[in-house]
User: What shape does this take?
Amino acid sequence: MRMRFAPALLVLAFAALLSSCAPRREEGVVLKFWAMGREGEVVTALMPEFERTHPGVRVEVQQLPWTAAHEKLLTAFAGDVMPDIFQLGNTWVPEFKAIGALRALDGEVATSQHVTQADYFPGIWDTNIVDGKLWGVPWYVDTRVMFYRRDMLARAGYAKPPQTWADWMKAMTAIKRIVGPDNYAILLPSDEFEPLLALALQQDEPLLRDGGRYGNFRTPGFRRSLQLYADMYAQKLAPLNRITNVYHEFGMGYVSFYISGPWNMGEFKRRLPADQQDSWMTAILPGPSGPAASVAGGSSLVLAASSKHQREGWQLIEYLSRTDTMARFHELTGDLPPRRSNWSHPRLAGDKYAQAFGEQLERVKPAPKVPEWEQIATEMRLVAERVTHGELTVDQAAAELDAKADHILEKRRWMLARKEGE
Amino acid sequence: MNSQRAAWCFAGPALLVIGVFFFLPVLAALVMSLTDFDIYALADLRNLRFVGLRNYVELLQTPLFWQALGNTLYFVVVGVPLSIAASLGAALLLHSRLTRFKGLFRTAFFAPVVTSLVAVAVIWRYLLHTRYGMVNHGLELLGISPVDWLNDPHWAMPAIILFALWKNFGYNMIIFLAGLQSIPDDLYEAAGLDGAGVWQQFRYITWPMLGPTLLMVSILSMSAYFQLFAEPYVMTQGGPVQSTVSVLYFMYEQGFKWWNLGAASAVAFILFAIMFCVTLLQLRVAKGVDA
Assistant: This one.
């Protein structure tokens, strides 16, 4: 019932004591590599090849569950037991850069024969640049596109998916007319902030202003995005209640549009019956006036500033970033590669469902690069939820979001002001 | 003089351990709750500011904190009496002369206490599953339509209470059983001779004789139930719609998700103050009953 940290801490301290008392004699270099979830499991299969081509280097892969990864990394930093190289969600890069846990990679990339910036999707590469320096190399990418039912759209009179917001609303209204009051047109997962963030990133105004010192949610742009989001609920195009099995509901026509990420390509292929495989498709997100941005998600590979094996660590990053390793990694995980040259390989080029992702990735935009962003985005989701329940108007929500963001960023402002004063 | 020195020698090691591993961290946490310790301070201590009572003031203005407090009170107010009733009921049944296979039942009732919470939580998630769970299957046999236990904001907390109840009642049951066994048999014999029925024997002998045990069990359960954390952490992650966010869960998110250790420490001390007050109240009430 209560948290029992104390015994665990004792054991940890004791273990640390023991290991420091008895230094093991190792031949060569042992690289500690932390990776999360399924990637951490699969990446071990790529290590024998690296160890074969780099004699004297051994890689110890440790797998972290995604749910605990963030706190484990911060705890490791606080306890000064960081790994040499680790996987980092690219939205976490600003935070780990701010605490000084990362090493800049500009020098390595400049002389590298394998990591060539021009081959990477620019929006994804950009997520790793904070304060003008590069802190990570993209490993795999993630974004949000639109999954849709081709047959439903055809029944509503559309041969192609809508590309603009106006067309999108029209198509959804037409579908709603066909499916009736008990069904809906679109599913926007309300436990994620990404769908609204994607719509917000399509606007020209940044979401934070003055170098990430204040919230910038009262702009006409953000309010338009939030208005669109709210309209989908107000006009009963999107359901408010929770859905337990998306695949079943999507197959039944409960919703015909669904904003989601790459992992669902595999799920839809697996979970929808064979006779429905031709009726679903993916498309890039409609924009205010034609194709526009979406979120730039995914993970990067980074080097710990504290690592004593920077050279070997970089060699491992380089090995994992090679197009042939990435192709193999894509085969093993289904994760989308960040390099354009991988997208012309037959395996990806021949996948009709993946094409929209490739197209969308050319247009992705990073979220504001401040350590506090995830907290602000969570507030954005909660405030938007209240708008969809009719508790707040769009203008009230924008004002409240600005107030919350300003509050969260107070410490950042204080630190920046102090730095300028020095 | 000599015996005093011996006393210090005996108590010393324990005091030292308690001082280093309990009082010192608590004191550090108290100091931390007056600062804005966060990831920036973690990187560089010059980024630490002393903010006085600001963490406390801001917490009291945070709606989610109040919701977490409300959820926790719900859990305590419903869970503790139910838990005590279940423990006492089970103890009375086991203590009865008519019960056979006492050892078997005692072990069976106590088993949930010693099993790993995470493992049984996984099993309970299956039991509570909307479509395939045995709980809903049973309800269906009674003609009650299925409940989406862990995804419905109204039912998630009752489901957690049910789970916690099942997991914990065996512990108090053992304490009650010990209490029951220490009541002299001649009291019951005398009452029987005077013509007291089963209910009267319970009301006028068992209940008052169990008084001190009851007080201890209620204080222990209360303080344990206030520290609700692992159940929602494993089963619902605070959802749906934050209906199972407890005070400790809120503190955990503040501390280890957003790394606002200053604010998280403040939560800990507010919870401590609340539990302290409730315990005082319990002692006061118990004294009033005794007098």
